[in-house]
Here is the input.
Amino acid sequence: MKKILILPGDGIGPEIVAEAVKVLDRLRADGLSVELEQGLVGGSAYDAKGHPLPEDTLVQARAADAILLGAVGGPQYESLDRPLRPEQGLLGLRAELKLFSNLRPAILYPQLAEASTLKPEVVSGLDIMIVRELTGGIYFGQPRGVRTLDNGEKEGFNTLVYRESEIERIGRSAFEIAQKRGKRLCSVDKANVLEVTELWRQVMLELAKDYPDVELSHMYVDNAAMQLVRAPKQFDVMVTTNLFGDILSDAAAMLTGSIGMLPSASLDADGKGMYEPIHGSAPDIAGQGVANPLATILSVAMMLRYSFGQPEPAERIEVAVGKVLDQGLRTPDIAAEGQASVGTAEMGDAVVAAL
Ligand code: NAD
Here is the structure.
């Protein structure tokens, strides 16, 4: 029996997670063998226990096979000391569980093509997966800092560094994901300028020999940025460094124009993962029952596919989401101007019914 730790978090977190739990309960009734446990993280954990990542939560997280997280944060926590702020709960979980592989899909349901700022024909049916290295590269490299030179001028510096083993593990993660999708992997680097990414490219080429069913290509990051907005449907899976992935995954997410629709995952070397919507705790709409729960529900589908190796129920969820969109159901964030909208619970119930 697989164990899922549910961490609702703050703001709209508890509202959207409740709908994802309804979906899990429905799948359990149909024989999915999982058990659920609830825990505290972020501002709500600080309120209850004085820390955004209490020891109890860490113990639960280590024992779980996967974690479903809502969102953390809120204006009431912004004046806290940095180590006590809600986002430290998230960063702490990623670090403690060694979640080095960040999966950010950019999927645009054809029913929502009008929501994108790009022409519908460029983005309709878009389905890209960006695999971003999450625990290395220039965000963590040493030395780093700001120093004062002999002439009194200040100089800031950071270090871009990747070991072969770090590149290999993110590479394997990406090749395995490509095997579960369209079997095409594009590795994004800047090998013409940066030695680190020249090594990155060599390691990817070497790894490709172990995955003969996956077609590997390479692209410089500047071209990748251009191609993502020019013809994004050419991509299946992209794999890249922490910095490049940070930027490209946000650009790709915005191609879809609907932040309430996109799930994400962060995985360790054994496929254990934390699954969460890409959006935040949306304090502006918290407590109103209008948040879109679909990104969180789709995070459950990712969990089933990537941590539990169960593509069938994952697809069942994705098809159900497509059905409710076909039925014309929209929360306010994805409703067209003048279109009637439904609330969070009504959307969750509709997905359960469509299952
Ligand atoms: P946000 O993603 O919470 O909200 C941005 C806008 O999108 C808001 O107008 C919000 O109402 C809307 N929105 C977001 N999710 C939605 C949903 N499911 N349905 C409908 N509308 C939705 O980003 P923000 O406003 O910059 O940040 C708010 C708080 O969330 C901050 O405290 C921030 O630190 C935190 N945050 C947390 C995470 C996370 O938990 N992973 C990520 C980003 C931001």
